[in-house]
Amino acid sequence: MLAPMKTITTCVYTFRDIIEGDFLYVDKTRWLYDLIKPAKGVYFLSRPRRFGKSLTLSTLESIFLGEKELFKGLYIHDQPLAWKKHPVIRLNLGDKQADTADVLKEKLSYAVRQNAARYGIELQENGCDTQFQELVLALSRQGKVVILVDEYDKPILGNIGNPELPKIRDALKAFYSVIKGVDEYLRFAFLTGVSKFSQVSIFSDLNNLTDLTMMEKFAELPGFTQQEVEDNYAEYIDQLSEKDAVARGETLAKIREWYNGYRFSKKDVTLYNPVSIGKLFENMDFKNYWFETGTPGFLLQLMKNVDFDVISVENLELDELGFSAYEIDHVRPEPILFQTGYITIKGYDNAFGLYTLGYPNREVENAFLRYLMDDFTPVSKEYAASHLAKLMKALLRGDMEMFFRHMRIFFENVPYDIQLSNEKYYQTIFYLVMNIIGVQIDTEVRTASGRIDAVVTTDNSVFIFEFKLQGSAEDAIAQIKEKRYHEKYLECGKRVRLIGAAFDKKTRNLETWVEEEG
User: Fold this and answer.
1) Which three-class secondary structure state does DSSP give residue 224?
2) Is 379-517 assigned to CATH 3.40.1350?
Protein backbone atom coordinates (compact mmCIF):
# COMPACT_ATOMS: atom_id res chain seq x y z
CA MET A 1 0.00 0.00 0.00
CA LEU A 2 1.43 3.38 -1.00
CA ALA A 3 2.09 5.90 1.75
CA PRO A 4 -0.15 8.99 1.55
CA MET A 5 1.32 12.12 0.00
CA LYS A 6 2.92 14.46 2.49
CA THR A 7 1.30 17.85 2.88
CA ILE A 8 3.07 20.81 1.27
CA THR A 9 3.75 23.93 3.32
CA THR A 10 5.05 27.27 2.10
CA CYS A 11 4.62 29.13 5.37
CA VAL A 12 6.41 26.93 7.94
CA TYR A 13 10.16 27.60 8.21
CA THR A 14 11.01 25.76 11.42
CA PHE A 15 12.57 22.36 10.80
CA ARG A 16 11.08 20.78 13.92
CA ASP A 17 7.58 21.97 12.98
CA ILE A 18 7.93 20.59 9.44
CA ILE A 19 9.04 17.17 10.63
CA GLU A 20 6.58 16.88 13.52
CA GLY A 21 3.78 18.22 11.32
CA ASP A 22 4.62 15.55 8.72
CA PHE A 23 5.03 18.16 6.01
CA LEU A 24 7.02 17.42 2.86
CA TYR A 25 10.73 18.12 3.40
CA VAL A 26 13.29 17.93 0.59
CA ASP A 27 16.43 16.49 2.16
CA LYS A 28 19.29 19.00 1.96
CA THR A 29 21.26 17.53 4.89
CA ARG A 30 23.93 16.04 2.61
CA TRP A 31 25.33 19.55 2.08
CA LEU A 32 24.80 20.56 5.71
CA TYR A 33 26.82 17.56 6.83
CA ASP A 34 29.71 18.67 4.61
CA LEU A 35 29.55 22.09 6.27
CA ILE A 36 29.61 20.85 9.85
CA LYS A 37 32.16 18.03 9.44
CA PRO A 38 35.14 20.33 10.16
CA ALA A 39 35.77 21.10 13.80
CA LYS A 40 34.97 24.75 13.16
CA GLY A 41 33.45 26.81 10.38
CA VAL A 42 32.31 30.41 9.82
CA TYR A 43 30.19 30.72 6.68
CA PHE A 44 28.19 33.20 4.63
CA LEU A 45 25.52 32.49 1.99
CA SER A 46 23.64 34.97 -0.20
CA ARG A 47 20.44 33.84 -1.91
CA PRO A 48 17.23 35.54 -3.12
CA ARG A 49 14.27 35.91 -0.76
CA ARG A 50 12.02 32.93 -0.03
CA PHE A 51 14.75 30.56 -1.21
CA GLY A 52 15.01 28.40 1.91
CA LYS A 53 17.62 30.32 3.89
CA SER A 54 15.55 30.45 7.09
CA LEU A 55 14.76 26.74 6.92
CA THR A 56 18.45 26.00 6.35
CA LEU A 57 19.34 27.86 9.55
CA SER A 58 16.55 26.14 11.46
CA THR A 59 17.80 22.75 10.27
CA LEU A 60 21.32 23.62 11.41
CA GLU A 61 19.91 24.70 14.75
CA SER A 62 18.23 21.31 15.25
CA ILE A 63 21.47 19.54 14.32
CA PHE A 64 23.50 21.50 16.84
CA LEU A 65 20.84 21.07 19.52
CA GLY A 66 21.40 17.32 19.12
CA GLU A 67 17.84 16.60 17.96
CA LYS A 68 18.78 13.42 16.10
CA GLU A 69 15.30 11.93 16.32
CA LEU A 70 14.00 14.60 13.93
CA PHE A 71 16.37 13.45 11.18
CA LYS A 72 15.29 9.84 10.91
CA GLY A 73 15.22 8.86 7.25
CA LEU A 74 17.37 11.81 6.18
CA TYR A 75 20.95 11.59 4.88
CA ILE A 76 22.63 13.06 7.93
CA HIS A 77 20.96 10.69 10.40
CA ASP A 78 23.27 7.77 9.58
CA GLN A 79 26.48 9.75 9.22
CA PRO A 80 29.26 9.55 11.87
CA LEU A 81 28.08 12.60 13.79
CA ALA A 82 28.33 12.93 17.58
CA TRP A 83 25.02 14.84 17.83
CA LYS A 84 26.47 16.79 20.73
CA LYS A 85 24.21 19.52 22.08
CA HIS A 86 25.65 23.03 21.68
CA PRO A 87 24.40 26.41 22.94
CA VAL A 88 22.87 28.19 19.93
CA ILE A 89 22.44 31.94 19.37
CA ARG A 90 19.79 32.56 16.69
CA LEU A 91 19.40 36.12 15.37
CA ASN A 92 16.87 37.19 12.73
CA LEU A 93 17.41 40.72 11.45
CA GLY A 94 14.42 40.51 9.14
CA ASP A 95 12.25 42.24 11.74
CA LYS A 96 14.96 44.64 12.92
CA GLN A 97 14.15 47.43 10.52
CA ALA A 98 15.32 50.82 11.79
CA ASP A 99 15.96 54.16 10.13
CA THR A 100 18.69 55.26 12.53
CA ALA A 101 21.73 53.55 14.01
CA ASP A 102 20.51 54.15 17.57
CA VAL A 103 17.19 52.41 16.94
CA LEU A 104 18.99 49.52 15.26
CA LYS A 105 21.32 49.12 18.24
CA GLU A 106 18.31 48.98 20.57
CA LYS A 107 16.70 46.25 18.45
CA LEU A 108 19.95 44.25 18.26
CA SER A 109 20.30 44.57 22.02
CA TYR A 110 16.76 43.25 22.49
CA ALA A 111 17.49 40.28 20.21
CA VAL A 112 20.63 39.41 22.17
CA ARG A 113 18.76 39.66 25.48
CA GLN A 114 16.05 37.35 24.12
CA ASN A 115 18.68 34.73 23.34
CA ALA A 116 20.18 35.17 26.79
CA ALA A 117 16.78 34.71 28.45
CA ARG A 118 16.36 31.34 26.69
CA TYR A 119 19.36 30.13 28.66
CA GLY A 120 18.49 31.92 31.91
CA ILE A 121 21.33 34.41 31.53
CA GLU A 122 21.02 38.00 32.71
CA LEU A 123 23.39 40.30 30.85
CA GLN A 124 25.27 43.11 32.60
CA GLU A 125 26.60 45.06 29.62
CA ASN A 126 24.64 47.81 27.85
CA GLY A 127 25.76 48.08 24.19
CA CYS A 128 24.47 45.53 21.67
CA ASP A 129 27.95 44.45 20.56
CA THR A 130 29.32 44.15 24.12
CA GLN A 131 26.16 42.26 25.13
CA PHE A 132 26.67 39.93 22.17
CA GLN A 133 30.22 39.23 23.31
CA GLU A 134 29.10 38.77 26.91
CA LEU A 135 26.45 36.24 25.84
CA VAL A 136 28.94 34.16 23.83
CA LEU A 137 31.38 34.06 26.75
CA ALA A 138 28.62 33.08 29.18
CA LEU A 139 27.30 30.31 26.90
CA SER A 140 30.79 28.98 26.26
CA ARG A 141 30.75 27.52 29.76
CA GLN A 142 28.17 25.05 28.42
CA GLY A 143 30.21 24.16 25.34
CA LYS A 144 31.35 25.56 22.01
CA VAL A 145 28.82 28.13 20.77
CA VAL A 146 26.89 28.15 17.48
CA ILE A 147 25.80 31.50 15.94
CA LEU A 148 23.11 31.61 13.24
CA VAL A 149 22.19 34.98 11.67
CA ASP A 150 19.28 35.30 9.24
CA GLU A 151 18.76 38.31 6.93
CA TYR A 152 21.96 39.98 8.12
CA ASP A 153 21.49 42.75 5.54
CA LYS A 154 17.85 43.74 6.05
CA PRO A 155 18.71 46.91 8.01
CA ILE A 156 20.88 48.01 5.08
CA LEU A 157 18.56 47.14 2.21
CA GLY A 158 15.73 48.95 3.94
CA ASN A 159 17.80 52.13 4.11
CA ILE A 160 19.29 52.53 0.65
CA GLY A 161 19.14 56.28 0.05
CA ASN A 162 18.83 57.09 3.76
CA PRO A 163 21.51 59.61 4.87
CA GLU A 164 21.82 57.56 8.09
CA LEU A 165 23.00 54.49 6.13
CA PRO A 166 26.75 54.92 6.86
CA LYS A 167 26.03 54.98 10.61
CA ILE A 168 23.73 51.96 10.29
CA ARG A 169 26.47 50.15 8.39
CA ASP A 170 29.03 50.98 11.07
CA ALA A 171 26.69 49.70 13.78
CA LEU A 172 26.29 46.38 11.96
CA LYS A 173 30.02 46.19 11.26
CA ALA A 174 30.80 46.56 14.99
CA PHE A 175 28.15 43.99 15.86
CA TYR A 176 29.37 41.36 13.38
CA SER A 177 33.01 41.94 14.36
CA VAL A 178 32.18 40.26 17.67
CA ILE A 179 32.05 36.93 15.83
CA LYS A 180 35.76 37.17 14.99
CA GLY A 181 36.61 38.37 18.51
CA VAL A 182 35.05 35.28 20.14
CA ASP A 183 36.39 32.83 17.57
CA GLU A 184 38.02 30.56 20.15
CA TYR A 185 34.63 29.94 21.76
CA LEU A 186 32.80 29.03 18.55
CA ARG A 187 31.94 25.69 17.02
CA PHE A 188 30.09 27.08 14.01
CA ALA A 189 28.68 30.33 12.60
CA PHE A 190 26.44 30.87 9.57
CA LEU A 191 25.17 34.19 8.20
CA THR A 192 22.63 34.51 5.40
CA GLY A 193 21.07 37.36 3.48
CA VAL A 194 19.94 38.53 0.07
CA SER A 195 22.83 40.85 -0.71
CA LYS A 196 26.56 40.34 -0.78
CA PHE A 197 28.33 43.52 0.23
CA SER A 198 32.08 43.59 -0.05
CA GLN A 199 33.98 42.43 3.00
CA VAL A 200 35.47 45.91 3.34
CA SER A 201 31.99 47.30 4.00
CA ILE A 202 30.56 44.90 6.54
CA PHE A 203 32.87 42.02 7.33
CA SER A 204 36.29 43.68 7.32
CA ASP A 205 37.02 42.31 10.79
CA LEU A 206 35.54 38.91 9.96
CA ASN A 207 38.36 37.74 7.70
CA ASN A 208 37.86 34.07 8.59
CA LEU A 209 34.49 34.05 6.83
CA THR A 210 34.03 31.45 4.07
CA ASP A 211 31.69 32.72 1.35
CA LEU A 212 29.56 29.89 -0.09
CA THR A 213 27.51 32.11 -2.42
CA MET A 214 29.16 31.11 -5.70
CA MET A 215 30.96 27.98 -4.55
CA GLU A 216 30.25 25.09 -6.95
CA LYS A 217 30.26 22.50 -4.15
CA PHE A 218 27.27 24.19 -2.50
CA ALA A 219 25.48 25.37 -5.64
CA GLU A 220 22.42 23.26 -4.72
CA LEU A 221 22.07 24.67 -1.19
CA PRO A 222 19.34 25.79 -0.89
CA GLY A 223 16.75 25.52 -3.68
CA PHE A 224 15.48 22.41 -5.48
CA THR A 225 17.05 20.70 -8.49
CA GLN A 226 14.95 19.20 -11.28
CA GLN A 227 15.59 15.72 -9.91
CA GLU A 228 14.60 16.74 -6.39
CA VAL A 229 11.31 18.14 -7.69
CA GLU A 230 10.55 15.01 -9.73
CA ASP A 231 11.46 12.68 -6.83
CA ASN A 232 9.71 14.53 -4.00
CA TYR A 233 6.64 15.88 -5.82
CA ALA A 234 6.01 12.90 -8.13
CA GLU A 235 2.38 12.37 -7.12
CA TYR A 236 1.64 16.08 -7.25
CA ILE A 237 3.06 16.21 -10.77
CA ASP A 238 0.77 13.33 -11.76
CA GLN A 239 -2.22 15.12 -10.24
CA LEU A 240 -1.38 18.32 -12.13
CA SER A 241 -1.05 16.38 -15.40
CA GLU A 242 -4.40 14.74 -14.81
CA LYS A 243 -6.06 18.06 -13.95
CA ASP A 244 -4.76 19.72 -17.12
CA ALA A 245 -5.38 16.57 -19.20
CA VAL A 246 -1.87 16.55 -20.66
CA ALA A 247 1.01 14.07 -20.69
CA ARG A 248 3.39 14.06 -17.71
CA GLY A 249 6.30 15.13 -19.90
CA GLU A 250 4.37 18.15 -21.09
CA THR A 251 3.60 19.12 -17.49
CA LEU A 252 7.27 18.81 -16.52
CA ALA A 253 8.31 20.98 -19.44
CA LYS A 254 5.80 23.66 -18.43
CA ILE A 255 6.96 23.52 -14.81
CA ARG A 256 10.57 24.04 -15.92
CA GLU A 257 9.63 26.96 -18.18
CA TRP A 258 7.69 28.69 -15.42
CA TYR A 259 9.77 28.07 -12.30
CA ASN A 260 13.21 26.52 -12.96
CA GLY A 261 16.35 28.37 -14.03
CA TYR A 262 18.17 29.88 -11.02
CA ARG A 263 21.91 29.33 -11.16
CA PHE A 264 24.50 30.65 -8.70
CA SER A 265 27.88 29.30 -9.82
CA LYS A 266 29.91 28.11 -12.78
CA LYS A 267 28.43 24.66 -12.19
CA ASP A 268 25.75 24.03 -14.79
CA VAL A 269 22.92 23.18 -12.40
CA THR A 270 19.67 25.11 -12.24
CA LEU A 271 17.26 25.38 -9.34
CA TYR A 272 13.66 26.06 -8.39
CA ASN A 273 12.58 28.59 -5.78
CA PRO A 274 11.05 26.33 -3.07
CA VAL A 275 8.13 28.68 -2.36
CA SER A 276 7.09 29.05 -6.01
CA ILE A 277 7.17 25.31 -6.67
CA GLY A 278 5.35 24.65 -3.40
CA LYS A 279 2.60 27.13 -4.25
CA LEU A 280 2.22 25.61 -7.70
CA PHE A 281 1.35 22.23 -6.19
CA GLU A 282 -0.68 23.72 -3.35
CA ASN A 283 -2.91 25.54 -5.84
CA MET A 284 -2.52 23.19 -8.81
CA ASP A 285 -2.35 26.24 -11.02
CA PHE A 286 0.41 27.92 -13.05
CA LYS A 287 0.51 31.47 -11.75
CA ASN A 288 2.97 34.20 -11.04
CA TYR A 289 3.60 33.60 -7.33
CA TRP A 290 6.63 35.93 -7.35
CA PHE A 291 4.24 38.88 -6.89
CA GLU A 292 3.27 37.52 -3.50
CA THR A 293 6.83 37.73 -2.19
CA GLY A 294 7.08 41.46 -2.90
CA THR A 295 9.58 43.53 -4.83
CA PRO A 296 12.19 45.79 -3.21
CA GLY A 297 11.08 49.32 -3.97
CA PHE A 298 14.64 50.58 -3.59
CA LEU A 299 15.64 48.45 -6.59
CA LEU A 300 13.18 50.17 -8.92
CA GLN A 301 14.22 53.56 -7.59
CA LEU A 302 17.90 52.68 -8.01
CA MET A 303 17.32 51.70 -11.64
CA LYS A 304 15.68 55.05 -12.28
CA ASN A 305 18.40 56.98 -10.46
CA VAL A 306 21.17 55.57 -12.66
CA ASP A 307 19.03 55.52 -15.84
CA PHE A 308 19.48 51.75 -16.08
CA ASP A 309 18.72 50.27 -19.50
CA VAL A 310 15.92 47.80 -18.76
CA ILE A 311 16.16 46.28 -22.23
CA SER A 312 19.78 45.26 -21.58
CA VAL A 313 18.75 42.82 -18.81
CA GLU A 314 18.35 39.99 -21.31
CA ASN A 315 21.94 40.27 -22.56
CA LEU A 316 24.16 41.21 -19.62
CA GLU A 317 27.77 40.03 -19.55
CA LEU A 318 29.77 40.63 -16.40
CA ASP A 319 32.77 39.22 -14.61
CA GLU A 320 32.40 37.79 -11.10
CA LEU A 321 33.35 41.00 -9.33
CA GLY A 322 30.89 42.97 -11.43
CA PHE A 323 27.74 41.38 -10.05
CA SER A 324 28.61 39.52 -6.87
CA ALA A 325 29.82 42.24 -4.48
CA TYR A 326 29.47 45.96 -4.03
CA GLU A 327 29.93 48.84 -1.64
CA ILE A 328 27.05 50.44 0.22
CA ASP A 329 27.97 53.91 -1.01
CA HIS A 330 28.32 52.79 -4.64
CA VAL A 331 25.37 50.52 -5.43
CA ARG A 332 24.74 49.40 -9.01
CA PRO A 333 21.55 47.64 -10.18
CA GLU A 334 23.30 44.60 -11.71
CA PRO A 335 24.42 42.91 -8.45
CA ILE A 336 21.13 43.79 -6.76
CA LEU A 337 19.18 42.26 -9.65
CA PHE A 338 21.27 39.08 -9.40
CA GLN A 339 21.11 38.74 -5.65
CA THR A 340 17.38 39.39 -5.45
CA GLY A 341 16.80 36.71 -8.07
CA TYR A 342 15.51 38.83 -10.97
CA ILE A 343 18.44 37.80 -13.13
CA THR A 344 20.62 34.73 -12.85
CA ILE A 345 23.58 33.02 -14.48
CA LYS A 346 22.73 31.65 -17.92
CA GLY A 347 26.25 30.66 -18.95
CA TYR A 348 29.95 31.07 -18.22
CA ASP A 349 32.81 31.72 -20.64
CA ASN A 350 35.87 30.21 -18.99
CA ALA A 351 38.25 31.71 -21.53
CA PHE A 352 37.28 35.28 -20.69
CA GLY A 353 35.91 34.81 -17.17
CA LEU A 354 32.55 36.27 -18.22
CA TYR A 355 29.11 35.32 -16.98
CA THR A 356 26.06 35.70 -19.20
CA LEU A 357 23.04 36.81 -17.17
CA GLY A 358 19.33 36.83 -17.88
CA TYR A 359 15.90 36.13 -16.43
CA PRO A 360 15.74 32.71 -14.73
CA ASN A 361 12.24 31.78 -15.86
CA ARG A 362 8.86 32.93 -17.10
CA GLU A 363 7.50 33.67 -13.62
CA VAL A 364 10.31 36.05 -12.66
CA GLU A 365 10.49 37.80 -16.02
CA ASN A 366 6.75 38.42 -15.99
CA ALA A 367 6.78 39.68 -12.40
CA PHE A 368 9.73 41.98 -12.98
CA LEU A 369 8.35 43.46 -16.20
CA ARG A 370 4.94 44.04 -14.64
CA TYR A 371 6.48 45.93 -11.73
CA LEU A 372 8.51 48.00 -14.17
CA MET A 373 5.44 48.67 -16.29
CA ASP A 374 3.64 49.80 -13.13
CA ASP A 375 6.54 52.20 -12.56
CA PHE A 376 6.95 53.46 -16.14
CA THR A 377 3.30 53.77 -17.17
CA PRO A 378 0.05 55.06 -15.63
CA VAL A 379 -1.55 51.62 -15.84
CA SER A 380 -1.29 49.81 -12.52
CA LYS A 381 -0.60 46.07 -12.58
CA GLU A 382 -4.01 45.42 -11.03
CA TYR A 383 -5.80 46.92 -14.06
CA ALA A 384 -3.27 46.17 -16.78
CA ALA A 385 -4.48 42.64 -17.56
CA SER A 386 -7.62 43.77 -19.42
CA HIS A 387 -5.74 46.26 -21.61
CA LEU A 388 -2.97 43.76 -22.31
CA ALA A 389 -5.41 41.03 -23.31
CA LYS A 390 -7.21 43.33 -25.75
CA LEU A 391 -3.91 44.56 -27.13
CA MET A 392 -2.75 40.98 -27.72
CA LYS A 393 -5.99 40.01 -29.46
CA ALA A 394 -5.72 43.04 -31.72
CA LEU A 395 -2.13 42.18 -32.64
CA LEU A 396 -3.00 38.57 -33.44
CA ARG A 397 -5.91 39.71 -35.63
CA GLY A 398 -3.72 42.32 -37.29
CA ASP A 399 -6.15 45.03 -36.18
CA MET A 400 -3.70 47.91 -35.85
CA GLU A 401 -6.44 50.46 -35.18
CA MET A 402 -7.44 48.58 -32.03
CA PHE A 403 -3.78 47.83 -31.24
CA PHE A 404 -2.80 51.51 -31.15
CA ARG A 405 -5.97 52.47 -29.30
CA HIS A 406 -4.89 50.28 -26.38
CA MET A 407 -1.19 51.03 -26.81
CA ARG A 408 -1.87 54.72 -26.27
CA ILE A 409 -3.16 53.97 -22.75
CA PHE A 410 0.33 52.90 -21.69
CA PHE A 411 1.87 56.17 -22.93
CA GLU A 412 -0.58 58.48 -21.17
CA ASN A 413 0.69 60.88 -18.52
CA VAL A 414 4.39 60.35 -19.13
CA PRO A 415 6.10 62.49 -16.43
CA TYR A 416 6.86 66.02 -17.64
CA ASP A 417 10.48 65.73 -16.57
CA ILE A 418 10.83 63.05 -19.27
CA GLN A 419 11.52 64.93 -22.48
CA LEU A 420 9.94 63.77 -25.74
CA SER A 421 13.46 63.46 -27.13
CA ASN A 422 14.24 60.76 -24.55
CA GLU A 423 13.72 57.95 -27.04
CA LYS A 424 14.90 55.22 -24.67
CA TYR A 425 12.08 55.92 -22.19
CA TYR A 426 9.37 55.48 -24.84
CA GLN A 427 11.13 52.47 -26.33
CA THR A 428 11.26 50.86 -22.87
CA ILE A 429 7.49 51.20 -22.42
CA PHE A 430 6.84 49.53 -25.78
CA TYR A 431 9.35 46.78 -24.96
CA LEU A 432 7.73 46.09 -21.56
CA VAL A 433 4.22 45.84 -22.97
CA MET A 434 5.21 43.54 -25.83
CA ASN A 435 7.19 41.27 -23.51
CA ILE A 436 4.37 40.98 -21.01
CA ILE A 437 1.81 39.96 -23.63
CA GLY A 438 4.20 37.18 -24.60
CA VAL A 439 5.27 38.06 -28.14
CA GLN A 440 8.86 38.07 -29.31
CA ILE A 441 10.27 41.57 -29.50
CA ASP A 442 13.72 42.66 -30.59
CA THR A 443 14.76 46.30 -30.26
CA GLU A 444 17.48 48.28 -31.99
CA VAL A 445 17.83 45.47 -34.55
CA ARG A 446 20.96 45.99 -36.62
CA THR A 447 20.80 45.85 -40.41
CA ALA A 448 23.35 46.74 -43.06
CA SER A 449 21.81 50.20 -43.42
CA GLY A 450 20.77 51.08 -39.88
CA ARG A 451 18.82 49.99 -36.82
CA ILE A 452 15.14 49.04 -36.67
CA ASP A 453 13.35 50.47 -33.63
CA ALA A 454 11.48 47.21 -32.94
CA VAL A 455 10.61 43.91 -34.58
CA VAL A 456 7.61 42.06 -33.15
CA THR A 457 7.02 38.45 -34.19
CA THR A 458 3.82 36.43 -33.79
CA ASP A 459 2.96 32.97 -35.14
CA ASN A 460 1.77 34.41 -38.45
CA SER A 461 3.31 37.85 -38.87
CA VAL A 462 6.43 39.97 -38.50
CA PHE A 463 5.81 43.63 -37.64
CA ILE A 464 8.55 46.15 -38.43
CA PHE A 465 7.99 49.20 -36.16
CA GLU A 466 9.61 52.57 -36.66
CA PHE A 467 8.67 55.37 -34.24
CA LYS A 468 9.13 59.10 -34.78
CA LEU A 469 9.39 61.44 -31.82
CA GLN A 470 10.12 64.30 -34.21
CA GLY A 471 8.46 63.67 -37.56
CA SER A 472 5.44 61.98 -39.09
CA ALA A 473 4.24 58.40 -39.41
CA GLU A 474 4.78 58.75 -43.16
CA ASP A 475 8.42 59.68 -42.46
CA ALA A 476 8.76 56.48 -40.42
CA ILE A 477 7.37 54.30 -43.22
CA ALA A 478 9.62 56.04 -45.73
CA GLN A 479 12.66 55.29 -43.54
CA ILE A 480 11.76 51.59 -43.32
CA LYS A 481 11.45 51.35 -47.10
CA GLU A 482 14.45 53.53 -47.91
CA LYS A 483 16.75 51.56 -45.61
CA ARG A 484 15.08 48.27 -46.60
CA TYR A 485 14.71 47.18 -42.99
CA HIS A 486 12.11 44.59 -43.92
CA GLU A 487 13.98 42.71 -46.62
CA LYS A 488 15.76 40.31 -44.25
CA TYR A 489 12.34 39.00 -43.14
CA LEU A 490 10.73 38.45 -46.54
CA GLU A 491 11.78 34.80 -46.74
CA CYS A 492 10.62 33.85 -43.22
CA GLY A 493 7.30 32.43 -44.41
CA LYS A 494 5.24 34.98 -42.47
CA ARG A 495 3.33 38.08 -43.45
CA VAL A 496 5.63 41.11 -43.14
CA ARG A 497 3.96 44.36 -42.10
CA LEU A 498 5.59 47.78 -41.97
CA ILE A 499 4.31 50.08 -39.22
CA GLY A 500 5.23 53.73 -38.94
CA ALA A 501 4.02 55.62 -35.88
CA ALA A 502 4.53 59.17 -34.62
CA PHE A 503 4.23 60.93 -31.26
CA ASP A 504 2.53 64.29 -30.92
CA LYS A 505 4.61 67.13 -29.44
CA LYS A 506 1.76 68.41 -27.25
CA THR A 507 0.24 65.18 -25.95
CA ARG A 508 3.54 63.29 -26.08
CA ASN A 509 1.55 60.21 -27.01
CA LEU A 510 1.11 58.05 -30.11
CA GLU A 511 -1.25 60.01 -32.33
CA THR A 512 -0.81 58.78 -35.91
CA TRP A 513 0.25 55.54 -37.55
CA VAL A 514 0.57 54.14 -41.07
CA GLU A 515 0.75 50.52 -42.22
CA GLU A 516 2.04 48.98 -45.45
CA GLU A 517 2.69 45.45 -46.61
CA GLY A 518 6.29 44.34 -46.75
Assistant:
1) strand
2) yes
Tell me the C-alpha distance between 357 and 343, whole Å.
6
Q: What is the pLDDT of residue 1?
A: 37
What is the four-CA torsion angle of 69, 70, 73, 76, rounded to 10 degrees? -90
CATH 2.60.40.1180 fits 15-213, yes or no: no
Question: Whole-angstrom Cα distance, residue 146 to residue 40?
Answer: 10
* pLDDT tens sequence across 295-351: 666 777 778 777 788 888 877 888 877 766 566 667 778 888 888 899 999 999 999
* 222 closest CA partner among 68, 71, 39, 58: 58
Residue ranges per structural domain of the chain: 15-213, 226-287, 296-362, 379-517
Residue among 268, 359, 491 nearest 370 (CA): 359
Amino acid at 376: F
The pTM of the whole model exceeds 0.85: yes
Query: 20 and 226 in contact (C-beta within 8 Å)?
Result: no
Burial, 181: exposed, middle or buried (Cβ in 10 Å; 0-12, 13-18, 19+)?
Answer: middle
